[in-house]
Amino acid sequence: MAAGPSRIPQAPARSARVVTAPAAGWPGPAAGTRLLVVAPHPDDETIAAGELIQQARAAGGAVRVLLLTDGDDNPWPQRWIERRIRIGAAERQRWGRRRRAELHEALDLLGVPAADLRALGWPDMGLTALLRRPPAQWRTPLLRELDDFRPDTVVVPALADRHPDHGAAHVLLRLALAAWDGPPPALLDYLVHGREAADAGRAIELPCVQAFRRTKLLALERHRSQLALSAGRVRRLAGRAERFGAVAPGGGAAALPWRPAAPLRPWLRLTVADADGARTWRWPQAPLRRDGAGWRLAAAAGQGPRFAKLHLDLPSPWIFDHWGWREL
């Protein structure tokens, strides 16, 4: 990486493992950086970007965290901590307030003032359903935040993240950015819930600065509700090197990547989201055609990014996506 004010602090012991930011088309934090970190739930900002936030602040840049949900649909830690079985609407609201308060404590350690947290209060475990509503319901709040902060770097969950809120958050932000009339920001993505192969695709790895790593782990401890039942897993996620992918427009495939078995097809649904909104079909009724490359959407594509998700139309205690989203 070239020397200068935009240089990410280096750690000699790990420099051989680092792909420098310019190689991925991103210069790193600088004095003029305006970094927007999108977090579907409280703690995602710390796990995925706690060190990046500190590096941007240390360089003199501005940081804002956009919290999409309060993480209130989190029943098992709540049952454990509050010693209760039944969780109703009032209990969920109280849990959401608790998690947002923990987030304020974490951001204070990371150097982000309370005024630079923006919370939309969208439904936890409901971002895919939100995406199916008329686009103005979710696009207008996102455009308002983009207009207010005017970021030059936006950090979002990866499309391949297996948590349904994370994949949907990527789609929501990509579609909002495509409709925004501001200057296009550098777009980076992060993976929290996913497989090692997907994480290896993140081209930008921040060098480890020990002071920033220690502060990040201290900030993680402020998310006490999430450590009650999953301390080992959450600390392991936060202890990894922070890796990001540089998202390029038009990086999708022409054909759908899935080959669903015939017995599953009556239970499968296909959701397609673009600038006009989201539409869902059962697989047998979806506008698909098949050729040598696989299944393709027969409907014509509009302007801007387009995404598809394959999912089962069956209740399950397993919250993570099996197929998830893909860009077309």
UniProtKB/TrEMBL annotation:
Which InterPro entries did the record assign? GlcNAc_PI_deacetylase-related, LmbE-like_dom_sf
Q: Which domain of life is it from?
A: Bacteria
For this protein, the record's Gene3D superfamilies field holds:
LmbE-like
Spell out the molecular function terms from Gene Ontology.
Answer: hydrolase activity, acting on carbon-nitrogen (but not peptide) bonds, in linear amides
Q: What is this protein called?
A: LmbE family N-acetylglucosaminyl deacetylase
Lineage start = Bacteria, Pseudomonadati, Pseudomonadota, Gammaproteobacteria, Lysobacterales
